[in-house]
Automatic annotation (TrEMBL):
<dbReference type="GO" id="GO:0004764">
    <property type="term" value="F:shikimate 3-dehydrogenase (NADP+) activity"/>
</dbReference>
<dbReference type="InterPro" id="IPR022893">
    <property type="entry name" value="Shikimate_DH_fam"/>
</dbReference>
<comment type="pathway">
    <text>Metabolic intermediate biosynthesis; chorismate biosynthesis; chorismate from D-erythrose 4-phosphate and phosphoenolpyruvate: step 4/7.</text>
</comment>
<keyword id="KW-0560">Oxidoreductase</keyword>
<feature type="domain" description="Shikimate dehydrogenase substrate binding N-terminal">
    <location>
        <begin position="9"/>
        <end position="91"/>
    </location>
</feature>
<dbReference type="InterPro" id="IPR013708">
    <property type="entry name" value="Shikimate_DH-bd_N"/>
</dbReference>
<dbReference type="InterPro" id="IPR036291">
    <property type="entry name" value="NAD(P)-bd_dom_sf"/>
</dbReference>
<feature type="domain" description="SDH C-terminal">
    <location>
        <begin position="237"/>
        <end position="266"/>
    </location>
</feature>
<keyword id="KW-0028">Amino-acid biosynthesis</keyword>
<dbReference type="InterPro" id="IPR041121">
    <property type="entry name" value="SDH_C"/>
</dbReference>
<dbReference type="Pfam" id="PF08501">
    <property type="entry name" value="Shikimate_dh_N"/>
</dbReference>
<dbReference type="InterPro" id="IPR046346">
    <property type="entry name" value="Aminoacid_DH-like_N_sf"/>
</dbReference>
<keyword id="KW-0057">Aromatic amino acid biosynthesis</keyword>
<protein>
    <submittedName>
        <fullName>Shikimate dehydrogenase</fullName>
        <ecNumber>1.1.1.25</ecNumber>
    </submittedName>
</protein>
<dbReference type="Pfam" id="PF18317">
    <property type="entry name" value="SDH_C"/>
</dbReference>
Length: 280
């Protein structure tokens, strides 16, 4: 039996987060019997008082929307990457201090590398939110020096574009109705929610591009299915979620050798269970 330690994922809404399944699977496989991981509903205004009330048993927090930006202001130290991306999805709590980090970029880089997409060449990113910003940072890490960012409203894409430029990318912002003009691309990254990317399934599939789609449920999306039918390589959002969680477990526990296979199996099983429940 190890020391009693706690961690959790915070955000709003949080009920459907897959993080507890992934982290608990890691703890079980690593023999961390005294570790506990929960999901806690928390909005922006609630983060500061929640952090102030945490005891020494807390090892870390995973952060989802809408907490990634405000976390930077409440941390004692911030990693260079989290600073560049403008958001932290991880707070490591140690020795009374809060260290903010970003493992989303690691999740994307690792997921693409595993799929053989570690050198994607030209890239087209759909959507301009926080995940698009992390995707642009990941593309820069993979060696790209330019990318196209396609968004509904260019006026709301400035933060994501600035992240890309801080990471060394020349970012060209276009509107989503011009996607076809920027195909083919070696890699299309869709950060659009739900069915918002359905309209691009035909053009992207016909272009021969590989696809990274951040959606993981329901899966496959129409876009992913079209690219798969066309013989293209597809990476889903679950792989990103898995690998960012692996890095979080490393940071929070201070241990290497995190059991990726056990976490993947637990996450996939939970997604199957949820899909069955939603259709039953």
């Amino acid at each position: 039996m190890g020391d009693v330690r706690r961690a959790a994922v915070l955000g709003s809404p949080i009920a459907h987060s897959l993080s507890p399944v992934l982290h608990r699977a890691a703890y079980a496989a690593m023999g961390l019997d005294g570790w506990r991981y929960d999901a806690v509903e928390c909005g922006e205004d609630g983060l500061a008082p929640l952090l102030d009330g945490l005891g020494p048993e807390w090892a870390g927090l995973s952060l989802t929307m809408p907490l990634k930006r405000v976390a930077l202001k409440l941390a004692d130290s911030v990693s260079e990457l989290a600073e560049r991306v403008g958001g932290a999805n991880t707070l490591v709590l140690r020795d009374g201090r809060r260290h903010a980090d970003n493992t989303d970029v690691h999740g994307i880089v690792t997921a693409l590398g595993e799929a053989g997409l570690g050198s994607p060449g030209a890239a087209l990113v759909l959507g301009g939110g926080a995940t698009a910003a992390s995707a642009l940072a990941a593309l820069a890490e993979l060696g790209l020096d330019a990318a196209v960012l396609a968004v509904r409203d260019p006026g709301r894409a400035s933060e994501a574009a600035e992240v890309g430029e801080r990471c060394g990318l020349a970012v060209r912002v276009v509107t989503l109705d011009r996607v076809a003009d920027h195909l083919p691309a070696g890699l299309v990254v869709s950060t659009l929610p739900g069915r918002a990317a359905d309209a691009f399934a035909g053009p992207v599939a016909a272009s021969g591009a590989a696809l990274f789609d951040v959606v993981y449920a329901p899966w496959p999306t129409a876009l992913a299915a079209a690219v798969e039918r066309a013989g293209g390589t597809v990476v889903g959002g679950f792989e990103m979620l898995l690998h960012q969680a692996v890095r979080q477990v490393e940071l929070m526990t201070g241990r290497d050798g995190v059991p990726v296979a056990a976490m993947r199996a637990a996450g996939e099983a939970e997604l199957v269970r949820r899909a069955a429940a939603s259709t039953g």
